[in-house]
Design brief:
By secondary structure, the protein is α/β, with parallel strands linked by helices. The chain folds into five domains: 4-202, Rossmann fold (3-Layer(aba) Sandwich), CATH 3.40.50.300; 210-404, P-loop containing nucleotide triphosphate hydrolases (Rossmann fold, 3-Layer(aba) Sandwich); 406-509, Arc Repressor Mutant, subunit A (Orthogonal Bundle); 532-609, DNA polymerase, domain 1; 624-712, no CATH class. It contains 32 helices and 17 strands. The chain has a seven-stranded parallel beta sheet, with helices on both faces. A six-stranded parallel beta sheet has the order 8-13-12-9-11-10, with helices on both faces. Strands 14-17 form a two-stranded antiparallel ribbon. α22 packs across α26 (586-603). The protein is elongated and about 120 Å long. The chain starts with a helix and ends with a helix. Mean pLDDT is 86; it is low at 510-522.
Length: 713
């Protein structure tokens, strides 16, 4: 068995070569070493924490065989394989969006060892395994592994068949990966998959770069304004607006589009073609907002999602954590905003009561409510749910930034309870109670005679937004309760009646959301002053957009925002310096280096042309990366004969000393013999035999190298 030291050394080399990084994140290398030793592995890392490296690198380290990656969504498979291929890694996926002929060809390529990573859905996996008696599987990676557990927040019945993997492939190591799994879910994953003494990594769930905020009871206009302010704050980046229902996603999409925002919609009610169009527009940056249900986003590695807005509260913290984790995957600052209302509580309670797991889902909902209603650091509550305690506040949530002010809300609560008690025969909900207190003569209120009660209009000095907030707080504090069996009727509690009798009650005053200052009519907003790094960063983003359009790829596949920021900080002006930027692997260095280096050199006031020898160095980089000569010509957009001339020059400079990949022993001997017997006509004779002039030049360089070695011996 290969030593740990050797695995570590090779893993670091591959990390730099294909991904452009010089060090691993916590847990990654240990997971790689464990799976390479043949152990089962369970990895729990936050969204954006680098889970995919944990199975992609072992696939590359394996001398033979293919790694099978189980993925729940076609969009996720396409996103992952596209990113891998862009890095020079042979990967493919089998799914229903491709013809069966295409899928069959991919299977043949995988069986022949031409593919290192093969992505499949759980439904297809068992069929594939049964038919692979002669193929070698290096490992099986199960992404989004929480889907196999009924304790998980996103249980999927088609994942339950994955437990058969151990029986069909008893000697193949299995890696289960997820971003969201509490203790019960982790234990269930291990049991369901039949993992044998797995090595487990439980990474930190903290994503300190994501700012957390909750805005209670906003109306639709306030929600739209908040989202528009985020779009304007991050004009070259993207955001997701999550909605509880399909209708809600469509409605928000319509509102944003009407305001001139480049928005798309994504939900399960759309046709597959329409969803694909929306996804591609969002990934490629032609749309800056995706209004979606939770059907959108799992595993999408779009690094420049700068914000996530939840228009409705999720049913559990696991879902919320996974969804906000789609922002700031590159580690740069991002924002997560949750809009919260009493209506969300009512709807989600109904869903929980009608589910097959009433007790579990209601308990999860209570923990989500604790987060939404928090009066202390939200991040500490979030991390505590996953068993990770913090002894200090985060300083990057709304509670830390703007601690809520408090006031004596006894009179406010008494007015509300008095109105409820004066209308005992009516099923009054939060909206109706607010209207009664504000003195609104709605038809239903008049029909029920509620406009005649003594407290009608008693709270006319408080607007609808604040009444909604106060009523929500009364429910949270146990002053009022909701009778879910009676049309969500509000009822005073025993404690509430004591408040009505004169006991003091303190309510938290929710602060208004942070919003940009209003633009004064007739005066243009001042343009913020950017420092040199920020200026170059924005210019590099423009270059990335242009390259992405040329390549027909999403911009984040070219380079992440974090890579561009490192580039703007290091300001590389040569290919060697460019390869020291985090996230720049060998293939991307050559393919995209000229465009980005030229932008840096222009910013620095230098000539934008390449330095002497750059093209030669690029060929050497790709050759050392194992790229065939024909592909080198394609990547560099030069003729194959030019590549041959580069190889010959590199051999003459003793920078290439192995020749078997481009020149066989038989070819070398034939060329050598032709020049030895008749040097004047050798070229024409060899041309008649099908030898390229470039290959002849390479053979002559090899002969000169051999002569040099003989002279030094």
């Amino acid at each position: 068995m290969e030593s740990i030291e050797n695995i570590s050394e090779r893993a670091h080399a591959l990390l730099a070569k294909f991904y452009g990084y010089r060090s691993f994140r916590p847990g990654q290398l240990k997971a790689i070493e464990a799976i390479c030793e043949g152990r089962d592995v369970v990895v729990v890392m936050p969204t954006g924490g680098g889970k995919s490296i944990c199975y992609q690198l072992p696939a590359l380290l394996a001398d033979t065989g293919v790694a099978i990656v189980v993925s729940p969504l076609i969009a996720l498979m396409q996103d992952q394989t596209q990113a891998l291929v862009a890095n020079g890694i042979p990967a493919a996926a089998i799914h229903s969006n491709q013809s069966e002929a295409e899928n069959a060809e991919i299977m043949r390529a995988a069986s022949a060892g031409r593919i290192k990573l093969l992505y499949v859905s759980p439904e297809r996996l068992m069929t594939l395994l049964d038919s692979w008696s002669n193929a070698r599987i290096s490992l099986v990676a199960i992404d989004e592994a929480h889907c196999i557990s009924q304790w998980g927040h996103d249980f999927r019945p088609d994942y339950t068949a994955l437990g058969k993997i151990r029986q069909i492939c008893p000697d193949v190591p299995i890696m289960a990966l997820t971003a969201t799994a509490d203790e019960h879910t982790r234990a269930d994953i291990i049991s369901q998959l039949g993992l044998s003494d797995p090595w487990c990594w439980l990474g930190s769930f903290d994503r300190p770069n994501i700012s957390l905020s909750v805005i209670p009871n906003p109306g639709i206009d306030s929600r739209v304004r908040t989202i528009i302010s985020l779009v304007r704050k991050y004009p070259q980046d993207s955001g997701i607006s999550y909605c509880l229902s399909r209708a809600g996603a469509e409605k928000m999409h319509a509102h944003l589009t009407a305001k001139g925002i480049r928005s798309v919609c994504y939900h399960a009610g759309m046709t597959p073609e329409a969803r694909t169009r929306s996804l591609q527009a969002f990934l490629k940056g032609s749309a800056s907002v995706c209004c979606a249900t939770v059907a959108f986003g799992m595993g999408i590695d779009k690094s420049n999602i700068r914000w996530v807005v939840h228009n409705n509260m999720p049913a559990n913290i696991e879902s919320y954590y996974q969804e906000i984790g789609r922002a700031g995957r590159d580690g740069m600052p991002a924002e997560a905003i949750l809009f919260f209302s009493l209506a969300d509580m009512i709807t989600l309670r109904k869903f929980a009561d009608e589910s097959g797991r009433v007790a579990v889902n209601n308990e999860k909902l209570e923990r989500m409510l604790e987060y939404a209603q928090a009066r202390l650091c939200r991040r500490r509550i979030l991390l505590s749910y996953f068993g990770e305690e913090r002894s200090h506040d985060c300083g990057n949530c709304d509670v830390c930034r703007r601690p809520p002010e408090r006031f004596d809300g006894t009179v406010v609560a008494q007015k509300a309870m008095s109105a409820l008690l004066r209308a005992p025969g009516s099923a009054i909900g939060a909206g109706t109670l607010s209207a009664i207190l504000r003195g609104i003569r709605r038809s239903d209120i008049v029909r029920e005679g509620l406009h005649n009660i003594k407290t009608f209009g008693a709270g006319a000095d408080i607007d609808a937004t604040h009444w909604a907030s106060y009523i929500t707080q009364m429910v949270q504090l146990g002053v009022l309760s909701i009778d879910y069996t009676q049309g969500n009727r509000l009822m005073p509690t025993v404690f509430g009646r004591r408040v009505l009798a004169g006991e003091k009650l303190i309510l938290a005053r929710y602060q208004p959301p942070e919003a940009p200052a209003k633009r004064k009519r007739g005066k243009a907003e001042p343009t913020p002053t950017l420092n040199p790094v920020e200026q170059l960063f924005e210019q590099l983003k423009t270059v990335r957009t242009d390259v992405a359009r040329t390549e027909n790829l999403p911009p984040y596949i070219i380079f992440s925002d974090a890579t561009l920021m490192d580039m703007a900080t290091k300001r590389p002006t040569t290919i060697d310096e460019f390869m020291q930027v985090n996230g720049v692997g060998e293939k991307k260095a050559v393919r995209y280096g000229k465009r980005f280096i030229a932008a840096v050199r222009k910013f620095e006031g230098l000539a934008t042309g390449s330095a002497a020898g750059t093209s030669l160095k690029e060929t050497l980089i790709l050759f050392n990366a194992g790229v065939p000569l024909g592909e080198i010509a394609s990547i560099k957009n030069i003729k194959l004969s030019t590549v041959y001339s580069h190889i010959a020059a590199l051999i003459d400079n003793d920078m290439i000393t192995t020749y078997g990949t481009f020149l066989s022993r038989k070819q070398y001997e034939t060329i050598k013999a032709a020049f030895a017997s008749n040097p004047e006509t050798a070229y024409s004779i060899l041309a008649d035999e099908g030898f390229d002039d470039g290959l002849i030049a390479v053979a002559k360089a090899v002969e000169r190298a051999a002569a040099r070695r003989n002279n030094t011996q």
